[in-house]
Amino acid sequence: MKKIARKILLIFFITIICTGAGYKGSLPNIEGSFEYKRSTPSVTKPIYNTIDETEKKPNYKKVPRENKTYIDIILKKDRTSPYINDLNDVILILEKMQKCIDNGGSIQKFNAIASSIIDHADYMSEKYANSPERYYISFAKLQNIAVQARNIATLRCESLVYIKYLTYQGEGQIYSKDSINRQLQIFREELESTIKIMKDSR
Q: Residue 51: its pLDDT value, please?
């Protein structure tokens, strides 16, 4: 009986001592680790603006052919072939001639551009005289267009001098306004064909 009483008393004593017992001390502050939970919105928004289909289409700039850096780097042309860059220079001049004819440019302006075409043709003829490029169609077309430019420039200059002394009949007919306009139109068509071939060659 005494043993049972001792056991009960021991259990009662242990229960009293252990009741309310636990870890004593301070716990670490972990609120900072969960701060993003409070600040992060439940629905994320895109950081870019969505495209409105009703907006105007962007106005793209024309290809800057006059910029050799663009041609060499952006278009990744073959740097071992200077012929490509030479063609690019000529295309710009031929396009200027097109605009000159379309806008009815003066004889002086026409002749200045024609002189530039002739100079480039001579330069390329000498530069590629012993190279495979001299067999390219674009090379032949440039030489041909330079001859035509020289002939029309000469014709227009002569017309200013001789038309005073010649009638539109016989020899003077070639210097008439209609005759020169026909020659300019033929030249304009040849310019367009040459530019297309040159652009396709690059």
A: 47
pLDDT at 160: 84
Q: Which two tokens stand for residue 52?
A: 């409105």
The two tokens of residue 179 are: 């005759």
CA-angle at 171, arms to 166 and 172, nearest 5°: 40
pTM over 0.70: no
Which residue in the block uniquely carries the two structure tokens 């106005």?
Answer: 59
Q: Which residues contact 192 (CB under 8 A, 6 or more apart)?
A: 98
CA distance 117 to 122: 9
Q: What is the 3-state secondary structure (H, E, C) of 91-126?
A: HHHHHHHHHHHHCCCCHHHHHHHHHHHHHHHHHHHH
78 phi, psi to nearest 5 deg: -70, 110
Tokens of 127: 């530069």
Question: pLDDT tens, 26-68?
Answer: 666 666 655 655 555 555 554 445 445 445 555 656 666 666 6
